[in-house]
């Protein structure tokens, strides 16, 4: 991947280091979420002992489609996190492997790289989109997990709502803040 410089000077020295730190952060967070995904896939939703729903109330038991959605959302989430991490790793590798005599951008390990900030920002944006979609799919998977464990959303008592409520309020709120910060960073 060829990366070329659009601007030069001291500004690039600081911004490229910040970009590398942002890419490291994306990869680290994606790794933690991927670990959580594999733990979630270890669940066997078809096990009758797995649910906490009273077996006498069959109307609150979830159907097999909820268990199928649980697995599907885990796979979509994993794919999104993998997409995001691979782009971030690729960008980091491109920055560290491109060396040219007349470049003016120093990366954190002391090497000099010729960086096209448009390509770098586009890659970071694509990686952020992958992370956001992975978080959304992971949230949907967790809602399905709560339904399998505690019963359909319509049947949830206070404990079930206390489990789902923060999940569907806090995660989208955090993602909205994350998106605003990423877009703000690109406008500067």
UniProtKB/TrEMBL annotation:
Source organism: Smallanthus sonchifolius
Name of this chain's protein: Uncharacterized protein
Domain of life of the organism encoding this protein: Eukaryota
